[in-house]
Structure formats: C-alpha cells, structure tokens
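User: Could you walk me through two proteins back to back? I'd like the raw sequence and the structure tokens for each, with a short line separating them so I can tell where one ends and the next begins.

Assistant: Of course. Protein one, sequence then structure:
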Amino acid sequence: HQKWIAEGVILLNQGSNRIKFERESYFPHIDRFALTPRPGAQPSRAEENGLIPEVVAKVAEQIKNKSEIKLELPENSDHLFPSEKVGQLKLLESEIKRLDGSRPTIPYAMAVSEAPAKTLKVHLRGSYLTLGEETKRGVPVVMAKSNPVAFPENKSGRLELANWITSPKNPLTARVFVNRVWRWRFGRGIVASVDNFGILGNLPSHPELLDYLATKFVSEDKWSLKKLQKRMMLTSTYQMSTQYDSKFANLDPENRYLWRFNRKRLEAEAIRDSIFFVADSLDRKMGGTMINLPARAYVTNDQSANPIQYDSPRRAVYLPVIRAAVYDVYTAFDFGDPTVMNGDRASTTVAPQALFMLNGKVVLNATKSQATKLLKRTDLDDKGRIRYLYRSCFGRNATEKEIARSLSYLSKFEQVYAKVKEPKLSAWQSLCKTFIGANEFIYVE
C-alpha cells in the first residue's frame, strides 16, 4: 500500500466541480483520495519541507477517525493491472513463495541483556531470604586495593567490571592466566596453588619470570593464548628431557627449579582421543553436538537412562559434560569436578584405570578395530606390524628384543586360545591392549 501526498494549484469554478485522475504507464491504482484546502494566509513551504505538517496531521487524524475506511486491497486485484502484466505478476508471486520456503532458519542462542541498574542488598550467608544492608556496585575491596575503581550510579557495573579485569593496570589477571597456562605445560605452576593467589596460597618459585611473562602477555602478545604458548614451548626449559640425575635430585628433589622436564600423564580427554587415534577411528569432524534432544527433554537422575553416546568416536571436546552424570572414563582419570573451579587437576593411580584399559568398552572396540586393520595390511609381516604398533603408540622404533618378545606373546596366546573364534585376531587385539595399557602410552616423556 502506498500513500501519495501532493501539492498543487487547481482552479475551481463556482458551484460543483468534477476532478478526473488519469494514470499513465504503470502508475499505481488509486483506491481513494482526499482533497484538503490549504489556508490562504499560510505561506507555501512545499519547496522547503516538501509537505505541510499541519495539513498532513489534520488529514491523518480525519482518516483515523473514520473507522469505516479500510486501507486494504481487494482480494482479487488482477483487474486493476494491465492484462499483459497479470501473468508476469503470477510468476513473480510463485517465485516469492518458493524463495520464502527455501529461506534457512535463523540460528538461535541463549543470550543476556542489560537490565535496569539496581542497588541490591547483601545476601547474608549467601541466602536471598536473609537480606542485609544495601551496597554500592563495585569491585570487592580485597581485590581493588591496588587498583580502585568507581562504577557509575546509572550502570549495572558489568561492563565496568569486565574492563577492570582486563585492564593492563590490573596486577592479577595476566599473572593468574599465565600461571595456569604454565601449569598445563610444565605440570606445576610458577605459583603452585593455581587457584589461590592470596596470602594462604604458595609463593611463586620464580617471581621475576611470572612478572616477565605477564607483562609480555599483555604488551606484546595482546592477550593471545597462542603466542603465549609459543613463547613457553620455544624455551630450552620446555624442551628438556625427563632424564633423572641424582646430583640435581639431591639439591632439588621436587624439581621446583625445573632442572628436568616433569614426567606427566595425559589428561582424561587426551587418553580417550589417543585410543581412538591409534586405532585410526577418531572422528575428526568439526562442529555439531552430541545432544540431539529437544529443549528440556534431557533429564538425568536415578529413574532415567543417560542418552549420551559417550563411546562415540567423536573428539572429546564435543562430549557434553553433565554435572550430575560425568562420563565414568573421565572420573577414572581425575577429570575435574564440573561443579567447582579447578585449575590444577590431580594425577592419581587407582585400580579402575587398569580395569578400564583391560575391559573398557572404548578400549575393546578400538583395539579390535586396530587389530583388524593391522591384519589386513598385506604389505607388512608380523615384525612390520609390531614396528608399526611401536611407532603409532609410543612414537619410537621397536628394539629387536621388544619385537622378539611381542612375537613370543602372539605365539603363546594363539596356542592357549586355539579353540576360540579367530584366535589370530584375538591374539593381535590382546597385544594392542598391552600397548594401550602401558605407561609409555599415557605418559609424556
């Protein structure tokens, strides 16, 4: 629907006058029109404004007050257009419908919006039912002594808090961040208490190094995690071996000063992905989700089964972490409690880990696939297959002694289990399990 407003001078005769509108070419059809006289004393402002606000407002009010006027096109308006154009319009309308039907759905995501700023009361003992005095918005005093900040009264403080946290003048953020990355790379943070930089935490073993890395992280790396890790991994300290030396061990038994690289175990996620990787069955597809359930349909309790397919070969980064139902393989290998903050995972050795490496569904499926693919390699003999296992699982070549020991294991297994179905496949699967269950597979040397 279009609304046209025009100004013009029409000479009218005394009495009744008939006005005829004629349209040329494809000028829109006019359903109804109104004539409004302009007061003679009012100067023309058509060139200045294009419209006369007072007149337009009056006309709009008059039309609005006439409820019987319906500004709608009739249902069948084909007769309003030239006959040769009706067919073209039909084609265009069908094309519009087709394009509307093929329009992709708009992706949705949960988001937050800024609410009106409020001054809230303190929740005594953390309970919203027990309220104390009103408090101003700001940074906790214990954190702002060295870098105080004031929040505007008309702001919620969220943006101001974010700017304060990431400010180059903030002495904590960069140091805490750098220390966490150092812990994941070296097995121990420069400040051992990764989650506690307060007076009850540990003192840094290398305070100057921590300050240096934090300064570079902000000024040169521009908060880039990739650049920070590159800076650490190119150091001679990171590239040291795990070789033990009794001389240095007597001086620094805890390796606090990093005279050798700390031998460390892979995290739970890396162990799982490595098992699929050596079996050549890891799904490297990017993106997507493993929770194909409608909203609010996922429930985990003692009355419902967990619908998540944790044995899927998808990379661990795509496995959902459900606080009430953590993947049992993760819990066996010291996965952090998702309900609390934890920047320093433990590394324990317990019986469930060995049982998983022997009988876990993931291990059984992966080793069977690994053994099947090895036996299909017609370009390799048994020695070649063993060498391949050492290179893929341990990242090194096998010695002649290790090859002989593996061949002996296969021979004895086939003799003992000669009556089982496919004894050769079972023997190779068992050998693959010994490789995956070895310390050398899950520990970084």
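----
Protein two, same layout:
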Amino acid sequence: LVAYLGSRILVNSSFGYALVAIREDAERTTMLGYNVKRVKLAVFTLSGALAGLSGVLYATWGNYMDPSVFTIVFATIPIVWVTLGGRESLLGGIVGTIIIERLRLWFSVNASEFAIVFVGVILMTTVLLVPRGILPGIRDGYVFFSKHGIREGIERGRVTIQTRLQARLQSVGIGGSETETPPSSEAVRE
C-alpha cells in the first residue's frame, strides 16, 4: 500500500511528467532541457530499491528462501499480473495480482496440476481479447457504451472479437477460408 501510494505521488509529480515525456520521446525531452540520463538513473535506482525492499519483506515474511523461489514461474508471474490488470495504470497491477493469485490459490487446492496451465490460458486470452488489460478495457467499454448505447456496443464488441480471433487463427494457419454460414431456420422451412 505504501509502495502504491508512493508511486502514485511520484507519477503525478513533475518528475513523473518528465518520465512520461521520456517514454514518449526522449530526444524531444532532452531538447526541452531535461537531463534524460539522470532521470533514467534515478528511476533505475528507485526501482532497484523497491525491488530490494520487496525481497527483504518476502524473506522476513517467509522466514526461509529456497531455490523454488527463483524458478521461471516466479520470474514471469509479475508479468502476467501486469498484463492482465493493464500496464497503463498503477492500479492495474494490483487488480491483476488479486485476480491471478485468487485463481492460483483456488486451482492449487482443487486442481493443482492445472494451476500454471490455467494462468497461461488467462495470459493468452488477455493478450488476444483485451491486449491493454482489464482496467483499460473496462474504461474503454464504459466510454463507448455511454456514447453509443448498449446494442451498438455489444454488436461492435462481437464483431471485434470475431475479427481478432479470425486474424490470429489465420496467422497460425488455422481457418484460412471463410466458411459458409448455415441457412436460417426460415429458409429451411420453405
């Protein structure tokens, strides 16, 4: 909670605005008079300190560190948290963490052999259907539905999902041609 609030304050400060400017165009930020190397060094130092603090807290919480903590699963699970929640906001990482960890806990109790597979399926589904994450997807959906109404939004969402899935399937060589739609029930009766 303290790290979230500190990050929130940092992002909304003038230093945070410099970070956004560097992310968008580092050369232009240099021309505006910011020392890009110094800002990047400060961010690297702060992120290293935050990572070190989280390691210390994890070690004191668990009272023991074993080699299983350094597996590929533990290294990649934070990426899944942020991808699911949305990397555009600080709250997205927290939401993604809560969702994934609750699901991992449920799966480890009820179907332990499928827990990590399920996390992979969630990651693939998120990347395919909501590439920016859940929170930006909810925000975009709210904005769209408030402008256009529910019916048009649902139809557009259905078409978007179908288009994305067809493009992904065709990119891997599945479903190369359009299939004919089955006749409607009215045409069958005649």
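Confidence is low (pLDDT under 50) at residues 180-190.

Let me know if you want the two compared in more detail.
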